[in-house]
Write a structure and sequence with these properties.
The protein is an alpha+beta fold and 403 residues long. It folds into three domains: 238 residues, Bira Bifunctional Protein, Domain 2 (BirA Bifunctional Protein, domain 2); 50 residues, no CATH class; 81 residues, Anticodon-binding domain (Rossmann fold, 3-Layer(aba) Sandwich). It is built from 15 helices and 16 strands. The strands form three sheets. An eight-stranded mixed sheet has the order 1-5-6-11-10-9-7-8, with helices on both faces. Strand 15 and strand 16 form a beta hairpin. It starts with 12 loop residues before the first helix and ends with a strand. The structure holds one RNA strand of 77 nucleotides.
Length: 403
RNA sequence: GUGGGAUUAGCUCAGUUGGUUAGAGCAUUGGUUUGUGGUGCCGAGGGUCACGGGUUCGAGCCCCGCAUCCCACCCCA
């Protein structure tokens, strides 16, 4: 037997119901905020991710499905969604056109990781990207959008926010931090020694307890912001408070992708195990320029659909459509004909096997039909059909041509 | 990539110190009180015990390998 590749799952029946329910809910909310759908390819030039996500990140460093195609191009399956959207934005010259452009997307992402619950090699994200708005109100809108989606789906969460600073305050902070970490170098873990070289900010969210103890006195990003970043962060908190969004400031919150600046946020659930981040995002004002576009402020987020699917409270399934059966083989043809008529507007399922009324009712109940319709001996003789509303428990005998 | 646990019917799981034909519940399916369901009763089908080796007279059970899932690390959504 051939089975699916490790960390790559089929989505069917009940899972698919959840999946589409999520997509339609998230789409509805994104459209309410004025966002438009965008679809970008699953396969992109490897350089796109190296330049945007950053070579120091684990995603690019060791988790990409990368290969040389038949035209000798270095390509890879997208490990995240933002880079492709930004690439499309620039390629369509929307950076030159100016104005505001708001997109949402959803689709498969690929990372060669060791699978776990809530962590797959092929997984799905829903994300939005906003270009051309530098106001921190847009950052807040991102957070409120995620909050709205989660509320619609009945999902509880904790929101953590932080500010990563911008070009005028981040570099000097980084120097300060590197200096601090190098002073306590002897006590820190191997990973942190590597991080100091590659991406020093990442030491802050090291999970190693010994490291964390050493970093208690480390300079905090939040205390080293320039006045612009500081004001924006204060404004962001105020907007969230005004709109009744609960948050906690996590000064160690660092986004895993290099392109973020200023606002960073993460939505966390306590109910799905260790892969607890269900949505994350922030501002990335420098990325468009990095990818050869005109400097354009931007902010966005992404949600992990498989992680959310575990948490979604599905609305109650309502009885729907017609079940049509016969108690005599001679009536099956009539049942099929009726079904074809009903299918112009409704769901109709025919049982091709003659059986007694009780069994028809059982079968109709099993498929959650609203109406159980049966043609028995009497009905066959009179040109009628017996119809029972399984919800209201009322029944009637109708002329077939009137049904 | 590192460490740990699990894998028996479609699903959830029993299976004694290695010993005849591997069980249950649910699901599926047939019958039934001769035209009233979601909640009766009786029956049936369904398993190379993940896969590949080994030890043994004999392996679902012990040993080795391998795959997948789960957990922790790592990473992140």
């Amino acid at each position: 037997m051939i089975s699916s590749l490790r960390g790559m799952n089929d989505i069917l029946s009940e899972d698919y119901e959840r999946f589409t329910y999520f997509i339609s809910t998230a789409t509805m909310v994104a459209q309410r905020y004025g966002f438009h759908f965008i679809q970008t390819p699953l396969l992109e030039e490897t350089a796109l991710f190296k330049r945007s996500v950053g070579e120091s990140s684990d995603i690019v460093g060791k988790e990409m499905y990368q290969f040389i195609d038949k035209g000798e191009n270095d390509v890879c399956l997208r490990p995240e969604g933002t880079a492709g959207v930004v690439r499309a934005f620039i390629q369509k010259k929307l950076d030159r056109a100016g104005g505001i452009h708001r997109f949402f997307y959803h689709g498969a992402m690929f990372r060669y990781e060791r699978p776990q619950k809530g962590r797959l090699r092929q997984f799905h994200q829903f994300g939005v990207e906003s270009f051309g708005v530098d106001s921190v109100y847009e950052d807040a809108a991102m957070i409120m959008m995620v909050s709205d989606i989660l509320k619609e789906l009945g999902i509880g969460y904790r929101l953590q926010i932080n500010s990563l600073g911008d070009n005028s305050c981040m570099p000097s902070y980084r120097e300060k931090l590197v200096k601090f970490v190098q002073e306590c170098k002897d006590g820190i873990c191997e990973d942190c020694i590597r991080r100091v070289e590659t991406n020093p900010i990442r030491v802050l969210d090291c999970k190693n307890g010994a490291c964390q103890e050493l970093y208690v006195g480390a300079p905090k990003l939040i205390h080293n912001l320039c006045s612009g970043c500081n004001d924006d962060f204060a404004t962001l908190k105020k907007i969230l408070e005004n709109n009744a969004i609960l948050y906690e400031v996590n000064t160690n919150l660092v986004r895993g992708l290099d392109y973020y600046s200023k606002t960073a946020f993460e939505f966390v659930s306590d109910n799905i195990g260790s892969q607890s981040a269900i949505a994350g995002g922030g501002r990335y004002d420098r990325l468009v320029e990095f990818l050869d576009g005109r400097p354009t402020p931007a902010v966005g987020f992404a949600m992990g659909i498989e992680r959310l699917m575990e948490l979604i409270v599905m609305p109650e399934i309502k009885r729907d459509g017609y079940y049509i059966g016969a108690m005599d083989d001679k009536a099956v043809d009539i049942a099929v004909k009726i079904a074809q008529k009903k299918r112009k507007t409704d769901k109709a399922v025919v049982d091709y096997k003659a059986k007694n009324l009780k069994n028809h009712l059982k079968a109709a109940d099993k498929i959650n039909a609203k109406f159980c319709c049966v043609i028995g001996e009497d009905e066959l003789n009179n040109g009628t059909i017996w119809v029972k509303d399984l919800e209201g428990k009322t029944e009637a005998i109708l002329k077939i041509e009137e049904f």
